[in-house]
Amino acid sequence: MTSTTPVPPLATGDGRHDGFPPVREDDAFLEQAVSEAELPALLAALALVTGDTALLEDGVKPPLPPMDSTIAPQGGMSAAAQQRARELAVGALKAFRDGGSVPAPDPGPELLGAVMRFVTKDAGDEYLPLLRHELGLAGDLGAPTWHKDDTAPATPFSVAVIGAGISGLAAAHRLQQAGVDHVVFDKNPEVGGTWWENVYPGCRLDTPNFAYSYSFAQKPDWPDQFSRRQQIEDYLRDVATDFGLRPHIRFDTEVLAASWDEAEHLWTLTTRTGDEPPATSRFHAVVSAVGQLNLPNIPDIPGRDTFAGRWFHSSRWDPAVDVTGLRVAVVGTGASAYQIVPSVVGAVAGLTVFQRNAPWMLPTPGYHRETPPGMHWLLRHVPHYGRCYRFWQFWLASEGRLPFVEADPEWTEEGSTSARNAELRRQLLGHLRAQVADRPDLLAKMTPTYPPGAKRMTRDNGVWAAALKQPHVDLVTEAVTSIVPEGIVTADGVLHEVDLVVYATGFRASDYLEPMTVTGRDGVDLHESWDGDARAHMGVTVPGFPNLFLLMGPNTGVVVNGSSLFMAECATEYVLECLGELLRRRAQSLEPTREATDAFCAWVDEGNLRRAWGVADVHTWYRNRHGRASQVWPYSLVEFHRRTRRPDLSAFTVRGGGEETS
Ligand code: NAP
């Protein structure tokens, strides 16, 4: 089955965007398409399209078994339930076609509620605001609740956004919606941030991509389940163009410093564009959207610079280098290495992979799978299906494996942190053993020694083990001790001769916001005050740094649930509401109190200590040199969503505008 339908534009409205061509295909075509569909989302969409809740009958409600190592296909529906669901879906599609493909009017709250309950197995009421936001059928619920022209038309106000990646573009869009003057600075010549920078072979998402896209810019035609980097970069370019964000972006412009002027209540930004001398500009507020993982961590191995061949960090991959016939070393076995190794193994003459800790691999058989053609057709022809599918993916991952990574203080079994974590461990080990049953040497090396969930797991469809089994590949677990012109020397004294070294050794996540200099009230330097332990109220605002807002800030990364894009969108919406408060009050500045920030961090720390990554004795980028997990969020997505709807002003000091409250 092929589809020649033109691709509809990004859906910018309520999900019923124009561009759904009428259904004209015959019954056999519809049956084939439905046979390739994700059924719970399809029934939900068809209920919205037809207005008929009878499609959501109890027998076809996805039972959603607990998410241990794998997600059950079709939400765990039995074969009989799937068969019945297909009959219902085909019947509804035929009726839709025969009625002229006219969708029912916008769904009211009752129908929306029925759909959400069907997909989520009766999620509690506390989820409803988040679910409405994500489903996006009741309008753009993340839009600012105010507009500058109504709130403070005569008040001069401008915002600098630093970074035009995932979170910077979200911020630019929301500022534009609110009618706020803004400039986006990016050191790169294009939008995309991490998706522009990481061009290593095999780079792709590890979050299902219908969920890894903006709630306000839905795309119905993702060709893969987990997009390749080029598709995400293209999507972000399209968002920048379609939403009119580009005129505000200053490309090739690095922000070197930001300094708060207390007398003027303004931030001064020092920027450098290309080779031009540094320039300054002033803004009332600064939104940092510099990302969390873009400062390469290149280990300081003795002799590193004496190496006679080429070397680079995974995120600085040189596309001009042809690895064909080369002897290649990959240092590290994290998420980046996991994608690079299988992608280059077929071309290289030799591949030596240096492993310090084996990664836990999460079974994901469809990791490289394309969206089946029938599903693709349905996404383009059935209004709401894309949104319902996104919602379905979102829901499956929203609390994800959080229950399986709990740390039980009473638990003593080695290699796990609780009974459910031990269960996850058993399942993941079974998955690993099945893949390397014929290679006990590899099984020993590939068996992780730390609890699952202590680090983000890699998405596994078998390509990693298959690559490591090849005769020209060597998985080395001896520690790297030095580098010489010919290659890498390990603790056992062996010299591994190579032509190219790739450092897939991760990022200096704890050096957050470096190398920028950020100076707040009373000349305080942000990095000095953090001293390697980044802290922010709600991950967004910092005491002593008025009108500074951080996206993908401290303690807002996710490990086993949801996607960072969701967290960035929530934080962006929160920032906009903070700015709205400033303008409504004609205030000059807003910053969190130290007490509120300390209380927030203590609460987050407490949560992290109840997660595998908080207690496991293993090196991760989540924890900084003080041992504190300063990068990740330990709680549910619904908790972050709830807390970021409106600023709790009792946590802030608001100055100026005739009002000073704290
Ligand atoms: P990473 O997960 O931090 O992995 C770094 C690897 O390098 C680890 O295996 C680490 O070993 C090893 N390493 C570090 N220093 C070393 C040294 N001195 N000697 C030997 N080995 C050393 O980094 P990453 O793979 O770049 O991924 C970072 C994060 O980026 C991920 O957690 C993920 O959130 C994100 N990411 C996402 C995707 C995606 O698919 N969307 C792709 C890539 C990255 P230890 O385990 O012993 O520390």
UniProtKB/TrEMBL annotation:
Pfam families, alphabetized: FMO-like
Highest taxon of the lineage: Bacteria
The entry's keywords: FAD, Flavoprotein, Oxidoreductase
Chain segments carrying region Disordered: 1-23
Protein name (Swiss-Prot/TrEMBL): NAD(P)/FAD-dependent oxidoreductase
Compositionally biased region (Basic and acidic residues): 14-23
